Amino acid sequence: MLIKKSLKKAVIKKAAVKKSAVKKPVVRKKRRIRQTLERFHVIAVQQTSSNLPYDTPGWTATLTRGTTTIRAEFDDFGVARFNNITTLTTVGYTLKIFDEANNQLTQKSVPSGLEVYVARFNIPT
Question: What are the chain's domains?
Fold first, then answer.
């Protein structure tokens, strides 16, 4: 009986050594890169199959919530950045986009929980 116990222990020990000696392949976990915009952005694009951004010099965008209205200027590439609205937004807004002559081009309802809102619309002719 003693021989069997000691033999069993030796076999178990030998198996443990073999397992540790076998190298397992290194599995690299994919890092998920998450880019987060810190401020709320609005992108004005054409409502066509191409979704090209508008040429927007002089355009403005306003976000309204209740009686508070916040305004931002568009750059030349169709993007307006609201410096005082952090993301993800916690409330919904009403977005209005105006051209350089202060004509309202569109009005959209912007839901909460966003970093960017893409406003697709056609300019009335």
Answer: 39-121 (2.60.40.10)
